[in-house]
Amino acid sequence: MGATQAIVQSAFTTRYSDEFRVDVSASNRLTQLASMKPRGGQSGALLDLSTSEGDPGDRIDFFRSGLRSLPTETNIWPLMLVLGATLLLFDVANRRLAWTGLQSVSKPFRKSSPRRTP
User: Nearest Cα to 35, choosing from 44, 23, 26?
Assistant: First the structure.
């Protein structure tokens, strides 16, 4: 009746990119960074996480306390946005409303416009 056909399976592999490569110079840099001592604190240490046996109480606290907090930056754009919107509202209100009491004060600052004759 019909000819039988075999199923062909194939696969290919690729190497990991260079960022995942284990580099000896990176471990030297980590050792150098760990040995640095911050002001008012203690120097760090490299941990061997390959051995995770032992009592859970013996585990290392990665979030140690006792260090001074560093100054942080605060975004100022929300305050400026509110301030700008408020000033825009007052500017529009000032142009649309008739301020009769302030006309004599603002008269010297107005430009004189030529009068039209019919």
Answer: 44
